[in-house]
Amino acid sequence: MESPSLAPPPAADEARCQSHPDQAVLGTCTRCGTFFCALDRETVNDKDYCTTCATRPEVDYLEAFRLKHWGKRDSWAWFVGFSALIYLAAGARLLMREGLRDSGLMVGLISLAGGTVGVCFWLGLPFARLALCFVPIVAMVTSAFTVGPGAISSGIWPIIVTLSIYQNTRNKLFFKEEVSREALEKAWNLYANNAVARTGFLLGLVGLLAFPLAPVALLCSIIGLRRVDPTATPPIGRKGQAIAGIVLGAVSTLGWTAFWVVTRLNQFGQAH
Fold first, then answer.
1. How many Cα atoms occupy the beta-carbon half-sphere of 123 within 13 Å?
2. What's the burial of 116, exposed, middle or buried (CB within 10 Å: 0-12/13-18/19+)?
3. Is the pLDDT of residue 170 over 70?
4. Quick check: 76 and 165 in contact, CB under 8 A?
5. How many whole angstroms separate alpha carbon 261 and alpha carbon 219?
6. Rounded to an integer, what distance in angstroms lies between the CA atom of residue 228 and that of residue 259?
7. Mean local confidence (pLDDT), 244-251
8. The predicted structure's pLDDT at residue 125
């Protein structure tokens, strides 16, 4: 009877994992340099880390972003909540004014139903996320019967908005829906990646119409550009927006300054 084969002993010069002596070392942690084996190696965003570093927010920043917004109301939730109050008030007022007449009763009840769905959406009740998509559809159909077919066109945009809310990653996190890492990365880039550069770009657009925001846009964009580092963890991007913000801020500042100087010179000339 043959004895069972035993695994060959490890070579004397083979590095062993400190936490798992029976395992060979596979590499070192990208962050702290600690040796790891197959049992404690964690791969995050195509980089290898030890188990301890892999859980740090600055390493797995997508998971940190998910946990930060998990179950937390986003701007869409507040928008729907305030809209729900308007629907409820309008529906109640319509019922009190129109009484039990057919058209007023139908529109009033639909307004109350839509407002109720909006309140449930604000509360984060799971069914309300899908139910919200049907509110503008029902309202559009009702308007077509009470007002006329021409009212259908006015209901297109509300349908588009509710579908956008339904697909929004940030709103899915509020409802505690699981999302892919690809969707998380897009949401992180939109909401968290180099917010200073993004703010500078937006202020640069507004600064074309409002002088006080122009120099602020220029300053934010310069700071945002200096922060850009694609090799950092997490990577810091928005270089294009930072450059665009600098251009917009500079043009707005120079344009408004020139306008102020010309205005003052004209006033001075008229006074003398």
1. 11
2. middle
3. yes
4. yes
5. 22
6. 33
7. 93
8. 96
**Bridging pattern class, strands 27-28 and 35-36:** antiparallel
Long-range contacts of 205-211 (CB under 8 A, 24+ apart): 205/248, 207/248, 207/249, 207/252, 207/253, 208/248, 208/251, 208/252, 208/255, 211/252, 211/253, 211/256, 211/260
Q: Which residue type, as a one-letter code, is found at position 240? A: G
| Cα separation, 226 vs 209, whole angstroms | 26
Cβ atoms 231, 248 nearer than 8 A: no
The tokens describing 189, both together, are 């880039």
Answer for the pair 219, 261: CB distance below 8 angstroms, yes or no.
no
Within its chain, how far is the Cα of 18 from the centroid? 41
What are the tens digits of pLDDT across the range 92-142? 888 787 655 556 677 788 889 999 999 999 999 999 999 999 998 888 887
Q: Is 8 exposed, middle or buried (0-12, 13-18, 19+ CB in 10 A)?
A: exposed
Q: Angle between the 195-207 and 239-271 helix axes, to the nearest 10 degrees? A: 30
Amino acid 109 reads L
Distance CA 95, CA 263 (A): 57
Residue 6 predicted with pLDDT over 50? no
Nearest CA to 233 out of 44, 70, 75, 77 is that of 44
Q: What is the pTM of this model?
A: 0.71
Tokens of 88: 């409820």
The pLDDT value recorded for residue 1 is: 43
